[in-house]
């Protein structure tokens, strides 16, 4: 008998659901249990849209956990620490000062400080990894990034709770001002990066991507210590809407992905420059090959573009409800459109004209500055309806 | 037009270069529109850019970029270009989606970059199930075709990626058309045809002429109206260019109440209006409360809580004439946004606020409420006016309490504040009594004479000398009241030699101080205090503050000070009323766009072919594949498939 008769597939499974492991199912049960608990506890405070958002978030989280294994244990630790911190708080906001664990670790401002410190350490470690090439150092850098991200998320979760402890009418999801969205930006950018790091099994990009996160952390620290803008403020009436819960995170997936694309664009440019100067140099050997970088830039921009499209549309729907029109040519809106058109042009050039390589890498870097202006510059230099988070 | 010209035009319209040029052009227009603030009053632009550039910018429509003819033209071309693009690509893409390419020729497939040869020892029939299983495992669907060499299996997946192109580009067209319907293109056309003319005067709604009025069946608009509590309106205003148009509504909106709720810290928490919609077609009025983020929809109209303001609050004022003497303070009633006559001037109250929540300067609490304030202009007969902002209650400053009133002569300036000390009963009365005594020649003369007589050397001097000193005091006091210390100093600089100025100034200041003190004591005496008793710390400090207030009074430059004694607050709610039928295109278009974009990126089309040839030694297999994008991921998948096949068949180099 020849071997031809016996089938030897690499995978026995055929259905997506059959591919799920026991941990996957446990994970989905836990997420559902969590969502059910939140619903039971808080449904009095939620309107129909918020229930829908809860359901959608739970589904998304289950799917994310299924697609990306590490995310499961990560989310579970974040949930565990957040619950621990919240239970230490009880119903007393002042516990932040008296309880050791809160004061030094989990009170939102402490957790954010930890996040900041860890991201900066991770950046340095990634650079050490890039220069030394040491595997162990690379692993340490990744772990630091994971820890920083966990601390940041715990900080946001705890802050959410703290806002309710300040007063039930003050409570809101912590994505309402510049301080909070900078944290969100750091976390999302880091998670996107970590995903690509695992997927492509290369840690050499970390140094560059974490640079942008460190810059965000720098801003955050300045904002905290110089501007004292780290306190929880009640929402202005215009922001008091369920739309904020989806519009803002979707936007920051966009911003995060565009930043990632820009930093990889920078690596691309550096590497091709280095190649011209010294084909056997350090950067040359340590950094991934140009084809991979090129593909990553495309992937990041595609992801960013998709989410930015979604976010802008969600913003338009929100505006239709709050401002009396889905589009008002308010400066923030207009700059969102500019960012979007810019990347639309980028994608057309790449996909229909077949442009790639260095010009597209440069364009991705320039795109970052356009994005940065839409994100920060508009708040600093232009006035309009989006008046949260003035600098 | 000859056939070929049309074809060239068509190709141009659908070309990628035009599309990208248009995208970039819109982006640049948008940058201009955010750098130059849009839709501001024209005089502001004249101030900012000067008359020359104002005219240039105006003719380029840079103050209304998004409604300008050129911008709408670009948008129109984008719609056209995208339509042509979709029209041209549609057949090709539909073919691509439905076609498995099973009719491709062996020799052309053999040239594809992704390929691998295998040899199966079994017959074609026995080999087939394994191959199909592998295809299914990777979620490919397939077709088979028999040719004279054997069998061709054509497989593909991710057709959504191609459909995504159609979805997203059709969506762009749909969204732009919806947006154009809701933009003010129809208004522009009507204006262009001379059917409407913009109104620039501030006149009551019922005096606006028909040519500036839009009928209630206008299909698409965005208009605003302020309605005081208890009042109603069946119209709203559309901001247009440097003026506005009146939009009639087919119903009346009555505002029963407007409320602002506050957080404990004092910041506003919600703005709400209780509305009642009365429509001849309705048996019963519709009643609903709207708030920010919770508008009211009625018959395709949407009514939003947009702003708020004063709806004609009634203020009880006390007018203190600052140029003449005591006893003439007058009570008067005034209404916000109406004109009242005061001391020969026109009082125009523009705003009243019952609360002024400000960051606490002492930093103890985050915010403090500084109480009610009102803002007004006093217009002189020659038409010029100063603007004032006056607080009702005293405000604490370095532990003392002051009445605060700001003045500015130009709207572009900041208010310059005058601080008047509050007396022990937190009233303005003592300061005003002091100030008006200084303005009253008779009282002042008597006190001056008394002061002149009570000085150390005075007993010996003749009555004539005392008279002279008293007269000198009066001159000093007058200078002080009219221009503060500055005026006295300026006077000395003109009349006294430089080396003596310091000394003279000292003497003058002492003399003035004594007079002021006695005036103050007489005010206290009028209040019933015993002048022989030493001043309390409060009264002494009050004197210092009062003198400083008089010193700066001339900068306040008003003939009359208006004290707010009481009010009846009437608010107006600012509503935005819109009708936007275009949203029924825009919203579905948005859904299609999101769907299309995600499909394009995440369902990339991939194709595989298996070319089978039956031979003596079994079956020869050639695996080839191609993908439009995401090459990197396709490489990986192809690698996996190759491994799977290699486990079942022997690989042929
Ligand atoms: C605001 C206008 C437009 C936007 C936002 C837009 C957006 C996009 C995006 C995001 C892609 C994604 C590419 C992908 O991953 O497949 C794309 C592809 C494409 N676009 Fe556009 N587009 C616009 C207008 C146009 C116009 C006017 C044309 C016609 C010349 C055009 C022709 C194409 C073509 C041919 C592709 C490639 C489709 C494919 O091969 O799958 N687009 N467009």
Automatic annotation (TrEMBL), chain B:
Residues annotated as transmembrane: 12-36, 63-87, 163-181, 584-603
Domain ResB-like: 16-639
Compartment(s) where it occurs, according to its Swiss-Prot or TrEMBL record: Membrane
Alphabetical UniProt keywords: Cytochrome c-type biogenesis, Membrane, Transmembrane, Transmembrane helix
Claim: Kinase is one of the keywords in the record: no
Keyword match Disulfide bond: no
One of the GO BP terms on file: cytochrome complex assembly
Topology term for the membrane: Multi-pass membrane protein
Coiled coil, from the record: none
Annotated GO CC locations: membrane
Domain of life: Bacteria
Protein name per UniProt: ResB-like domain-containing protein
Origin species: Methylomonas lenta
